């Protein structure tokens, strides 16, 4: 089990927190290899940018290195593949999703001295670049391209509807626990889609260490236990959700599940 508190996540680099999370979900995560690869790539970046004196041009050279020479890219063909959320796999495959690519961009960029921060924008993770005495600019880590406020507004409208307005709060840099929390939800969703229920169960258990008694996490845990044929435990979790969220539309559906499960034999694992 992952034994980390919010303060631990804030004290470490985001990519290190992600590796700790990945390891807690899947013990086969290659943490040692990933750290060696991170160091190798950082050394390569420092050497490649050694003679670039202008900081802005140096940053543009870094982006070219990351996306073109190293070949990191968003995985458009298999966006929801769980491999895209595990840092060791992203380093190995050079493919990822905004949050995993963004964590790598932040790690290398900040080690190289660039003023970068992560933003959990409602539609996806983005990276803020904020030079002194200038307004912030935003980078889509999925592609490495700059995104304008107009584009971010369009993303928001597509996500929440035509009356949605872009607000300052949407662009506030996020702390690491917030980012890791959303990352965990993404990993769990991917693992459920792939029917990797044992690993998905670890995600739910981890989430409950940060937000104990969350009825929605407990509902999801009940679903996972049901898939693992642990029906009695699933019944208990479903009952808890119904009691805590009686007005949620899912509660009525779960009552039907309760009736069906109550007639099944209890399987202990």
Automatic annotation (TrEMBL):
A Pfam family reported for this protein in Swiss-Prot or TrEMBL: Transglut_core2
InterPro entries for the chain: SirB1_N, TPR-like_helical_dom_sf
Domain Protein SirB1 N-terminal: 34-184
Similarity-based family: Belongs to the UPF0162 family.
Name recorded for this polypeptide: SirB1 family protein
Species in which this protein is naturally found: Vibrio ostreae
